[in-house]
Every structure is written in structure tokens, then in C-alpha cells.
């Protein structure tokens, strides 16, 4: 790796991370090889070891390198992993269908909503619902999970969830098509939490890892609950939630 100092605008660790990422993209070092030690990187780029460590953390978050105990930092990819940004402009975007993602259904079961689940969903305690469990991933060859998903559909509308479009089309849309009941109200709650064991396993992280829970409820006329969803995301640079609002003026 050639000597290059981190002199770009912005934090030195960010500039160093860009320099190292560019070198990795050029094959210096190649995938499977190790980066120089922290001490060598600090010396060759004229920065502190703390700056080097933060730059390496950025490279790890991008999926370019991984630490190997007793060996150092190994290059595992030439290009950063793609980031999934949920940009909210419509109800379809809120369901995650506005971006290049896909949902793999892993389980379907029926349950009677208990008080704890009813409190989470904001409605439906004592009501029978169909629960669909799945994993949302980026579309294409990258299998890395983005979210552990649970969808709850009241029993009268469960037939909509049996249609082959599930996973590609929001269920509330299928309900609207079949029963002519439009969504007139949507409510969303976002909370930070420590991921429970089952969700952590599905997302490939350790139980207790920091995460984000997004609960959405879709209502028809007269506050009729059509669908509720619970999405769990692990803390990761791969997922970003963005919302854009325009002034009415």
C-alpha cells in the first residue's frame, strides 16, 4: 500500500477510511490479505492510533474488513455492502416496498392476541389474527437480512394473506382490492430496544444487540384495523430511515 496522508476535508478518521477503502478497491491489499498494523498505518499516514482504529471501524461497518484474533485486520471485500435506506414518501414506502428488497416468509400461524401483544399493536386484544413471520433482505444476490418482520392480519381478512403476491405487495393493498376497504389512517411508532433472542438469531447478531422496532398500523374507515406490522432492525450502517416532508405552501 502506497503512502498517502489523510488530508481531505472532514474528520481525519473519515479521510483515512476513504483512503484505505480506495486502496482496497484497487486491490492493495487484495481480498484475503491483511492491512498493515495500526502502528504502521499511523506512521505512514501521519495520524494517531486512535484515528486509525476509528477508520478501521468504519471499514468494518462497510463490510470491507474484519478483525482476526492474533492476525490483524483482514480484507474481506473490495466494495462496501449496499445500504438500504427506507425513504418515506407513500404508504408503500412505509411497508418497505419502495426500495430493492424482498420478503421471505418463514412461518404462518393463527393466534388470539393477548393483552401484551394487543398493547404493542394498539388494538385487537382477544381477537384472532393471522401472523406472518419473515425476513426482509436486499433484492439480488446479497442475502444479508435487513429486518425481522411480523405481520398481523385480523381473521376476517386472512384470505388476502394467502395470495401469491404476499411479499411483493402490501397486504393492506390486497385487502383493499378484495373487500374494497381503503386505508384511511396509518399510525407508526419507532422505539429503540435490545433485540430479543429469536429476532437476533434471524438477523445474524447476538441477543441483546441494540436495535430499532418499527410498529405500523393500517386502519380502514371507522378505525377498522386492517393490518399491523412489527419490524425489528439491528443497529447497522446498512439500514437508514429517512422521511421527507414538503411544506403545504
Describe this structure in words.
With 249 residues, the protein is α+β, with helices and mostly antiparallel strands. The protein has two domains: 12-75, Orthogonal Bundle (Arc Repressor Mutant, subunit A); 84-243, 3-Layer(aba) Sandwich (Chorismate lyase). It is 25% helix and 33% strand. It has seven helices and ten strands. A hairpin with a 6-residue loop joins strand 5 (128-138) and strand 6 (145-154). Helix 1 (12-25) crosses helix 3 and helix 2 (38-45) packs across helix 3 (49-61). It is elongated, with a radius of gyration of 22 Å. It starts with 11 loop residues before the first helix and ends in a 6-residue tail after the last strand. It comes from Falsiroseomonas stagni DSM 19981. GO terms for molecular function: DNA binding; DNA-binding transcription factor activity. Pfam families: GntR, UTRA. This is DNA-binding transcriptional regulator, GntR family.
Task: Provide a compact summary of the structure.
The chain is built from 7 helices and 10 strands.
Low-confidence stretches: 1-9
Strand runs, count: 10
Largest beta-sheet details: 6 strands, antiparallel
Total of DSSP H or I helical runs spanning 4+ residues: 7
Helical proportion, percent range: 10-25%
- Topology as H/E string? HHHEEEHEHEEHEHEEE
CATH fold topology of the largest domain: Chorismate lyase
List strands and helices in order, with pairings.
Layout: H1 12-25, H2 38-45, H3 49-61, E1 65-68, E2 72-75, E3 84-88, H4 91-94, E4 101-112, H5 115-121, E5 128-138, E6 145-154, H6 171-179, E7 185-194, H7 197-203, E8 210-220, E9 224-234, E10 239-243
Parallel strand pairs: 3-10
Antiparallel strand pairs: 1-2, 4-5, 5-6, 6-9, 7-8, 8-9
Amino acid at each position: 500500500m502506497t503512502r498517502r496522508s489523510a488530508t481531505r476535508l472532514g474528520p481525519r478518521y473519515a479521510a483515512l477510511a476513504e483512503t484505505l477503502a480506495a486502496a482496497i478497491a484497487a486491490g492493495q491489499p487484495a481480498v484475503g490479505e491483511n492491512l498493515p498494523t495500526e502502528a504502521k498505518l499511523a506512521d505512514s499516514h501521519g495520524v494517531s492510533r486512535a484515528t486509525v482504529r476509528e477508520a478501521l471501524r468504519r471499514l468494518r461497518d462497510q463490510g470491507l474488513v474484519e478483525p482476526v484474533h492474533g492476525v490483524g485486520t483482514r480484507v474481506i471485500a473490495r466494495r462496501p455492502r449496499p445500504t438500504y435506506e427506507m425513504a418515506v414518501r407513500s404508504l408503500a414506502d412505509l411497508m418497505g416496498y419502495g426500495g430493492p428488497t424482498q420478503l421471505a416468509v418463514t412461518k404462518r400461524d393463527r393466534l388470539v392476541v393477548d393483552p401484551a401483544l394487543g398493547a404493542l399493536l394498539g388494538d385487537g386484544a382477544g381477537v384472532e389474527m393471522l401472523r406472518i413471520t419473515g425476513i426482509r433482505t436486499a433484492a439480488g444476490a446479497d442475502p444479508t437480512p435487513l429486518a425481522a418482520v411480523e405481520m398481523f392480519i385480523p381473521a376476517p381478512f386472512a384470505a388476502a394473506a394467502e395470495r401469491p403476491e404476499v411479499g411483493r405487495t402490501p397486504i393492506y393493498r390486497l385487502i383493499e382490492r378484495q373487500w374494497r376497504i381503503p386505508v384511511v389512517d396509518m399510525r407508526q411508532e419507532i422505539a429503540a430496544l435490545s433485540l430479543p433472542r429469536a429476532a437476533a438469531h434471524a438477523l445474524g447478531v447476538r441477543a441483546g444487540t441494540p436495535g430499532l422496532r418499527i410498529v405500523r398500523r393500517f386502519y380502514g374507515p371507522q378505525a377498522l384495523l386492517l393490518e399491523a406490522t412489527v419490524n425489528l432492525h439491528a443497529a447497522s450502517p446498512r439500514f437508514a430511515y429517512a422521511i421527507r416532508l414538503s411544506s403545504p405552501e
